[in-house]
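Appendix B. Raw example, untouched.
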Amino acid sequence: MNSSTTTSTAAGEKTGRPGADRAAGRPGRRRLDSRAWAPWALLAPFLLLFTLTFAVPILTAVAQSFTRVTRQGVFGEQGVTTQFAGFWNYAQALGNDNFTASIGRMLLFGIVQVPVMMLLCTILALLLEGASARWPAFFRASYFMPYGIPGVIATILWSFLYVPGLSPLIDIAGRFGVEVDFLGADTVLWSIANIVTWSYTGYNMLIIVAQLKTIPNEIYEAAKVDGASPWRVAWTIQLPLIRPALVLTTVFSIIGTLQLFAEPQVLQSVSPAIDSEYTPNLSAYTTAFAYNDYNVAAAQAVLIALVAFILSFAFLRLTNRKSQ
């Protein structure tokens, strides 16, 4: 009996594991494996949904942008052939003057609209988080409420203020001898900018407010002891500390500018100045569903994403360089 115990102990020492562990089927190894797989099991639903709704459509669009489909016959009844097209679809997309003009139009839109919206949401956030602010919860909810209205509904509501004969603003301006055309070729872009600013200022404001709430009270107390005015506190304390929120909301706004779609599509029915390719997304939509050229539309979508990435990356590099 003593010899068998000695043999089992020696075998356990040689392998680095107790003999009882081997007899029980290595429960320590099994417990370790279950702990390693548990996070993946919890992440599996999200990863599956992310793959099906995000990764697969992107990869499909990229693949279609490099292929060319040729249909024999009117509806392809004589056969459909698919071949690698290289950058032919991209050349077609960039050769479309309406598409390139829409990108330039949205760049102008973003240069004006994004800074104005960021200035407004920052001022609102600082005012609502000030020590003298009254009913901040009520006003936060009021400013955020336009974001809860779908873009199509918001555009329809604003169109009643833009269309002559329906707009009280145009009637009031006419009484003073001022002619206003909110839907003209020179003004409709800024009418759309007004709708976007009205819709998203409250959303960006809440992100900045959330960042303001992370500032410790001790910093405010120290500034109060030093006799700092509210303007001084906002300029030297709050604005530097909410910089991450400002950068995040600006990047979101840059990306959203190139994704503009619902507002011009709705206003297209009341404004002759808006054509079917007024914005990049509207141009890709028209190419796909009006001209049935899905491969060129896929190339346009990839170019839109590429421009958004370049602008966002350039903005982040610029802000990081300034902070350093």
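End of appendix B.
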